[in-house]
Design goal:
Blueprint (H helix, E strand, L loop, with lengths): L4 E7 L2 H18 L4 E4 L3 H12 L8 E4 L1 E3 L10 H10 L6 E3 L8 H15 L4 E5 L20 E4 L2 H8 L10 E4 L2 H5 L3 E6 L5 H9 L15 E7 H4 L3
Parallel strand pairs: 1-10, 2-3, 2-6, 3-5, 6-9, 9-10
Antiparallel strand pairs: 4-8, 7-8
Helix pairs in contact: 1-2
Length: 238
């Protein structure tokens, strides 16, 4: 994870993917215990966090940076992405410092500005851990999206609403969100993109094989220092 450009590793299955992702994250944390880590939620990253917890990784000096949050959802709401991040990553790994997106602030635009200033004060993101959305979104940077898009409120697409509905057991998915910007994501010094399942095969192909385009926000990762970890179901015949 040192040379700029996308490197792809194909793992046998989701369990092997989680182990390999944990290997890479553990190595970066040991090299720089005070790193800033942009943290995604979702089923694929969750398996990686479980593996890191099993290894008793000491992440107490890491600064965890929230990737996205539903607009207007408080931390006690079962749909809170911060609540998910706290339970799956922050508390099990003993993380003490967190930069959050305040989705209940009276002025969401100002909340995004404060978030950007906090991240800038850290010196940016050392490692971004991302999943791949069904339409190519990273965080909630929905298509079409330019690479210089900043942290901002967004309206979720039907694809994202349908995908996220599976997480909340019949609860309505909020239609708005705050997301860390593409500029912040693409500025990360290292990125891990985790892709699992045959349902991601088509969008992974577009991410890796098409010219970078606003219609597939993840395609902007081309030319950044990104490692893609994909299981064989997602990789298919690429």
């Amino acid at each position: 994870m040192t040379d700029r450009g996308v490197n792809v590793e194909v793992l046998d299955d989701a369990e092997a993917l989680a182990r390999r992702a944990a290997d890479l994250i553990e190595g970066v944390v040991r090299e720089k215990p005070t790193l800033s880590l942009l943290v995604a939620t979702g089923n694929t990253p969750l398996a990686t966090y479980t593996e890191l917890t099993r290894r008793n990784l000491d992440a107490s000096a890491v600064t965890a940076v929230q990737l996205d949050e539903y607009l207007g959802v408080g931390e006690d709401d079962p749909r809170s992405l911060w609540g998910w991040m706290r339970r799956a990553f922050v508390e099990p790994l003993g993380v003490r410092k967190v930069i959050r997106l305040d989705a209940t602030a009276p002025d969401p635009v100002e909340a995004c500005r404060r978030f950007e200033l906090e991240v800038a004060a850290l010196g940016g993101i050392d490692l971004a851990l991302l999943g791949l959305g069904p339409n190519g979104h990273l965080g909630f940077n929905e298509p079409p999206c330019l690479p210089d898009a900043g942290t901002r409120p967004v309206t979720l697409t039907p694809e994202s609403l349908a995908s996220n509905a599976a997480y909340w057991d019949g609860l309505a998915v909020p239609t708005g969100a705050l997301t860390a910007g593409m500029d912040l994501i693409l500025g990360a010094r290292q990125t891990l993109l985790l892709v699992s399942g045959a349902h991601k095969r088509g969008i992974l192909a577009r991410t890796l094989q098409e010219s970078p385009t606003p219609e597939v926000p993840a395609s902007w990762l081309r030319g950044t220092n990104t490692t893609v970890l994909a299981d064989r179901a997602a990789w298919g015949g690429l």
